[in-house]
Amino acid sequence: MTTSNHIDNKKPLLGVNIDHVATLRQARGVDYPSPLRAMQICEKAGADGITIHLREDRRHIQDHDVYEIAENITTRLNLEMAATDEMLEIACKVKPYWVCLVPEKREELTTEGGLNVAGQVDTLKDYVQKLQEHGIKVSLFIDPDREQIDASIACHADAIELHTGAYAEKGLAKDIEAEQAELNRIKDAVQYAKKANPELFINAGHGLTQQNVGAIAAIDGLYELNIGHALISDAVFEGLSQAVVLMKAAMHADKA
Ligand code: PXP
Predict the structure, then answer these.
(1) Tens of pLDDT along 70-115?
(2) Residues 6+ apart with CB under 8 A from 70
(3) Which residue is closest in CA terms to ligand 1's atom 11?
């Protein structure tokens, strides 16, 4: 288990978000592919942590996944969730190493923006404290914005996770100038947060791919990057040819 903070980190850690293994399972309503097995493969391959998002609509990760993963994890579990009473109850039972509070809208495809911490410091401060009283470290998923960083510190969060979605989107749109501007915004946010509270863990994530991760990973002071969709997408192609070979072997097994 890694407990060093970002001050000791030369390179950020990798937290793998395995939600989309569950997306594939839920699309068929069967019991495979198993997020638990995905977790074990990721850990064996060197993932530093595992992230799952238990959404209010249960569109991918289910409650039983959370319990199974928490029971079997050998690294650290980061449970993403909305700041609701239902999720508080679950988190206090499961006691993940981290909880990352995210905004959630039913109609969104993914977590589209950061949490507006500045607009709800008093409520979030209490919520963060309740989790911390259960021994859980709390991270707040925010846009790379000084006002949100100040508010997160005011809530006594242990960590912030900076939303890299806008940076990723500009890159996908091949808008190099805007991509650089978003990168600078993230760099500024990391520097600002480090100065404002040197004890704060600073994470980042959303939309990161093999193509755009390098510039983010190079930012001094980042503790962990949380990556899901692109990594699980890469896994499809990394594994597809072997899956064809294995299926053919299964088809022809009794004809040898
Ligand atoms: N961090 C947070 C807080 C998220 O909500 C998500 C998406 O669930 C991620 C990181 C990972 O984003 P992606 O799947 O685009 O890599």
Answers:
(1) 999 999 999 999 999 999 999 999 999 999 999 987 667 766 789 9
(2) 77, 94, 95, 96
(3) 206
